[in-house]
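Q: What does the predicted 3D structure of Aminoglycoside phosphotransferase domain-containing protein look like?
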Amino acid sequence: MHHWTKMSKDEPPDRLSQELRSEDISFAAADASIERRRKAKEAKLQAVEQQLAQADQQSVKPNEQGPVGRKQELTSQDLSFAAAAASTERRRKAKEAKDAEAQEKDEERRQTVRVFIQSVDRACYAWAGRDTFFGQAPILVRGNFASDMHDRADYDELAWDRFDEQRDQLEKPFLSPATLKTLEAVVGADFANEAKWVRPVHIGGWNLVFVFELVASNSRVVIRLPRPHVAYFAREKTSLEVATMNFLSQHTKLSIPTLFSSGKHPDVGYYLISEFVDNNGLLSRALAKPEEDEDEAPVLNLALLGCELEAHLYDVAVHVLHLFQPSFAAIGSLNQTQDGLFGVGGRPLTQNMYNMVYLANIPPSVLPAEDKISHTADEWYTVLAEMHMLQLTFQQNDLVKDEDDCRNKYIARHLFLKLARAGKLSTFGFMDDTWSAQSKSDRRGYCRAPSNAGSFRIWCDDFRPANILLHKGRGNGSTVIDWEFTYVAPTQFVLDPPWWLLLDVPEMWCSGMEDWAQQYGRCLDVWLRAMERAEQNSNETPSGYSLSEYMQESWTTGRFWLNYAARKSWAFDSIFWKCLDERFFGKRLHEPASQEPLWRKRIGLLNRAEKMAMEAFVDKKMKQSQNKELLTWSEREAQDRRAEVLFKHDQGPLRQCFATIIRLVGHVQTVVSNLRGNAQ
């Protein structure tokens, strides 16, 4: 999901504006210099005129070296001054044209559709009944690339510019009558029925969505295509979404659109054809402040804190319970064999990975291999922590402000990675937590941590009210759409309360993360009541898990923040220092007035080799950031750098042997689990 708002008047100027302001300074300096020279020339000319007048009175004929000669010389200077003035005027006009272009560009950035990291599919706008050719709702970014918001780091501006350029270049053919004819033929062939396109075309964060009417049956279907400029993951994304939707429809009670078919067409690429859901709009709009612009990111209407909100949340809590039921022996994406069997067969494909590749220019080769699955929660936490370190390593532009900021980010990531590798993150905040500073001061009896191996749950990065369609008729339930970022994850993720209760995310909250947490606490009680009621009315709650109890503890202990930070590279730093650091390591003494020196409070947790590695990293990072460009990494270079920053070369044979044994045991558990599940 994207989270957007209008760009503020106080936001930092883009590069072009900064460049023009620097030119203003140079023009002002040039004007001042010319003015000084002009005044000196006028004073000199006035002196010559006085000499000529005196010569006339004395009847002295001036020669070429006399006042007349000097006057002629000054006249030539007039020409040079005129030329300089003309040059300045040309530069000024060019600057004004460039300035106008910059203003136009700024205005365009305020009005145009922006693809964001959290990438929402806007297909639901058609289902709400809009009737325009292009249903591309204006998605307004909260701040620009150089955002001065403290709770979310910036994406790479150059990568984002390239992303937009590729979108403009590659997407145009998909928005043509020829594409519509092709899609009509594809849909018509699938249903042996004439298909007619229904306006509009819906442009989402990662997909293009078209609605077609089947003329003979007077019914509608939806066909969805990955947007062409984000096609790197298209095959993988489509395959895992097909497997996920088929599994959920066959093995859960979730209400999701029926998937009719999928495939690849030579002209339009990969596609999905699914049921069109007749609806009363999005749950997010029902929960949002009524006076808000429909095209802006919705924010929860706090006036709903009561029966109406609880009724809506109860419906979602039922979905959550249904989604919690299936259990798997490994972490990864679902796949489906030709025999129709399901299993975990590849890496999780996350929203964060998409953002790393497309908005930060991070080489795909450093991400987990496509066939990589994890067999313990600790292993997946380690993979997530490594990706945070890789984001800091490979995003060249706009991520760090200065050396102290780089050290802050490095130490936060390095400590998080050390905790993950030590197997500590999976137990944090549970009864099993015996390592954190928080556990030593808070001895309350909390719930036990889920199993570290052999039992994991389905998780969707994009499960939220903006992907839930309300059925027509009051009390008729809802349907959950968009399952592209769904995978089997540590059970810890599902035991957290939903991050979407306020509709907007903490790192983008206009009043800051602290205010977000305060407002979140107000509606968390409503969610917990809804979840308790759903559990009481359900016969599906697994033995040993009371989701409402686990969710309450997650918020109290900070497990919520740990898992949220683990999934979000650009929100990680603020959450680590504000919500996790002191829970992990204890109070920071003599808290500095600003965030920049925070690394000094935890530098003692690094050994000598790690400190030296940090300084070498900071030095290299700052040198790289001086060159505003997008680096191209060969696969070998990227892998070597990855091994260097992750200390992969330091893993001894004993640790490698242990990791191999864990993987083998996990593979056996996966095979046994899949056989049991398919037998059932």
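A (community wiki): The structure tokens above were generated from the sequence. The longest helix spans residues 67-111. The CA atoms of residues 347 and 370 lie 5 Å apart.
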